């Protein structure tokens, strides 16, 4: 128990005060339970000193005003848009100016910032954040994580894998370079020492794999090139293999080769009907095919694909193994450069250096901790902290700050937030209900994320999709041949003509993340035709682009059937029926 004058958590002081006042606990017992000084608590309970009184001289902002800044900084950091030191000083200066205590809105001083961080060291600190890709921030939602754990739990129960960690595997890949991040060195104080590193070169991919028991499969390397050279694996640990690819990254062919020639031999030829192997990996839809699924089922291997862009939360090797691996790899590179002065690291040296780092990072303790941190073994959804999923709220909420504050406050606050949000949604207008245009059909490849692709449900959907795709291929080809606006024949040359002043500006085509294939036979919501009737009246070359109404999901020809020429990502577009 801290003595008077020593540091303690102000929140614990409030809890101890409430325990004495509301529950009748003695001051001595409350001070001991909550870790606060007895005399400090006694002074508050007697009313000699206000509960929210602060030590030291009067501060620029009151305790309540500073706590408001703290709460705002906490939420912004959890959303992935935290304040830097300078930005926070600007924010405090603007707050002082708005309260009329400052003549301008210039930032507060560094002394104020350091004193503020010292007073609130139990809540906030100036830290270096980890980079989070926008796609990961957007796709890691509570719904996708809940669905993933639901499907994973069903698979584990179906095949009785609750107490079989040796049959639950995770495979992941990472890229390595000859260039390394040098460690700290001993040098003259005040100097700026330099560290010689190798030049940046093409990326080599390493595929790692381990099971929940802590056993690791030897590394598998993918080098960029055409012909494989055995010297690339010189100095590698026993069992290491390597292949070549045009890019140096994994693809469908390489992934199939990895499973057949490397993974399968190290898991004793696969599982059995009574003890199948569960392989969890972060895969792309192009890596999953009916042939691969049939092969996996023949060898009693369950292929379970993680939800897209969630590996930083759900992938065991990504969460707790590849971070230490990179650190060990950089250390090995630094040692190599020191022992071989004047030489650079080539891809003929990378394998032996990476294998040494791989053995250190793939220790049983690290691997077991990785499966536990991601909730796979033992299966536990609650180990994924809700704070890790907060960044997704900035992409689907108009008021993400209020949503996060409600989540942190408890279930009642969340229900109230959702109720207010539901009441603020516009009801369906009569004009929308009268819009009976045919909805543009969209057929898409079944997504493997968050499910076991070797189960019959996904395989049936995939076979159906590929059959429909083959059936539609001749039809689309005939449509292109009969449509003069889509002919691929040579066009008249425009050399020598000043076409720049005659042609209108080409519309901007915004790419999307969707893998959907849009049916070309569904007409426009406005003109009722696939090809705009006014297209032939335009003497210039015109690219026909479409936009989907955000309200009724119908499709419209841009610039020809509506005045809108460009619909950018995350913007709102309404057809003429929904604009009334």
Question: How would you summarize what this structure contains?
Answer:
The chain contains 21 helices and eleven strands. It is an alpha/beta fold and 580 residues long.
Structural class call reads alpha/beta
**Strand arrangement, major sheet:** 4-3-2-1-5-6-8
Low-confidence stretches: 428-442, 485-520
Helix count? Answer: 21
CATH architecture of the largest domain: 2-Layer Sandwich
CATH homologous superfamily caption of the largest domain: Ribonuclease H-like superfamily/Ribonuclease H
How many strands, which pairing sense, and closed or not: the largest β-sheet? 7 strands, mixed
Total number of distinct structural domains: 5
Distance between the termini: 69 Å
Helix content: 40-55%
Radius of gyration, in Å, reads 31 Å
Morphology call: globular
List keywords for this structure.
single chain; 580 residues; alpha/beta; Arc Repressor Mutant, subunit A; Nucleotidyltransferase, domain 5; seven-stranded mixed beta sheet; two-stranded antiparallel sheet; 11 strands; 9% strand; globular
Report on this structure.
There is one protein chain. By secondary structure, the protein is an alpha/beta fold. It folds into five domains: 1-56, Homeodomain-like (Arc Repressor Mutant, subunit A), CATH 1.10.10.60; 63-119, no CATH class; 135-182 and 199-384, Ribonuclease H-like superfamily/Ribonuclease H (Nucleotidyltransferase, domain 5, 2-Layer Sandwich), CATH 3.30.420.10; 387-423, no CATH class; 512-580, Herpes Virus-1, CATH 3.30.40. It has helices at residues 10-23, 27-34, 38-46, 63-79, 85-98, 110-119, 134-139, 142-158, 252-266, 290-298, 311-314, 316-320, 322-339, 347-361, 364-373, 393-396, 400-409, 411-424, 430-433, 456-482, 576-579; strands spanning 168-176, 204-211, 216-224, 241-245, 277-281, 301-305, 442-443, 451-452, 517-518, 546-548, 555-557. Strands 4-3-2-1-5-6-8 form a seven-stranded mixed sheet, sandwiched between helices.
């Amino acid at each position: 128990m801290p003595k008077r004058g020593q540091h303690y958590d102000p929140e614990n002081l409030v809890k101890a005060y409430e325990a004495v006042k509301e529950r009748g606990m003695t001051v001595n017992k409350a001070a001991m339970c909550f870790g606060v000084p007895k005399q400090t608590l006694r002074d508050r309970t007697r009313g000699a000193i206000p509960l929210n009184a602060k030590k030291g001289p009067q501060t620029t902002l009151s305790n309540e005003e500073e706590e408001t800044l703290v709460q705002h900084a906490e939420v912004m950091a959890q959303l992935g848009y935290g304040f830097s030191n300078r930005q926070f000083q600007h924010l405090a200066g603007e707050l002082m100016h708005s309260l009329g205590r400052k003549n301008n809105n210039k930032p507060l001083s560094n002394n104020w910032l350091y004193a503020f961080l010292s007073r609130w060291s139990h809540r906030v600190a100036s830290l270096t954040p980890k980079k989070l890709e926008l796609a990961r921030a957007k796709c890691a939602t509570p719904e996708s994580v809940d669905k993933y754990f639901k499907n994973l739990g069903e698979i584990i129960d179906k095949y009785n894998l609750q107490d079989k960690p040796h049959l639950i595997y995770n495979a992941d890949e990472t890229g390595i370079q000859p260039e390394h991040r040098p460690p700290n060195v001993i040098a003259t104080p005040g100097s700026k020492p330099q560290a010689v590193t190798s030049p940046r070169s093409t990326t080599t991919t390493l595929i790692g794999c381990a099971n929940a028991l802590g056993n690791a499969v030897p590394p598998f390397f993918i080098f960029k090139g055409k012909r494989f050279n055995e010297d690339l694996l010189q100095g590698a640990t026993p069992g290491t293999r390597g292949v070549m690819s045009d890019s140096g990254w994994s693809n469908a062919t390489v992934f199939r080769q990895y499973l057949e020639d490397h993974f399968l031999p190290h898991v004793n030829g696969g599982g059995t009907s009574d003890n199948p192997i569960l392989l969890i990996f972060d895969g792309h839809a192009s890596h999953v095919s009916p042939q691969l699924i049939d092969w996996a089922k023949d060898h009693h291997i369950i292929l379970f694909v993680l939800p897209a862009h969630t590996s930083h939360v759900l992938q065991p090797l990504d969460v707790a193994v590849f971070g230490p691996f990179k650190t060990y790899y950089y250390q090995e590179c630094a040692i190599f450069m020191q022992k071989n002065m004047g030489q650079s690291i080539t891809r003929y040296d990378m394998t032996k250096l990476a294998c040494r780092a791989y053995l250190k990072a793939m220790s049983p303790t690290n691997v077991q901790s990785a499966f536990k941190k991601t909730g796979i073994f033992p299966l536990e959804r609650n180990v994924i902290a809700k704070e890790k999923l907060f960044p997704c709220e900035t992409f689907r909420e108009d008021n993400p700050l209020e949503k996060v504050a409600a989540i942190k406050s408890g279930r009642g606050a969340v229900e109230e937030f959702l109720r207010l949000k539901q009441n603020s949604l516009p009801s369906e207008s009569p004009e929308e209900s009268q819009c009976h245009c045919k909805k543009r059909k969209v057929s898409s490849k079944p997504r493997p994320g968050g499910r076991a692709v070797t189960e019959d449900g996904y395989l049936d959907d995939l076979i159906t999709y590929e059959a429909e795709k083959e059936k539609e291929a001749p039809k689309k080809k005939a449509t292109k041949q009969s449509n003069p606006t889509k002919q691929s024949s040579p066009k008249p040359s425009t050399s020598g003509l000043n076409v720049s002043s005659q042609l209108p500006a080409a519309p901007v085509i915004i790419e999307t993340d969707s893998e959907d294939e849009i049916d070309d036979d569904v007409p426009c919501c406005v003109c009722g035709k696939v090809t705009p009737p006014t297209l032939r009246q335009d003497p210039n070359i015109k690219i026909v682009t479409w936009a989907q109404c955000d309200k009724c999901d119908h499709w419209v020809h841009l610039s020809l059937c509506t005045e809108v020429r460009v619909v950018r990502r995350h913007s709102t577009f309404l057809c003429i029926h929904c604009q009334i």
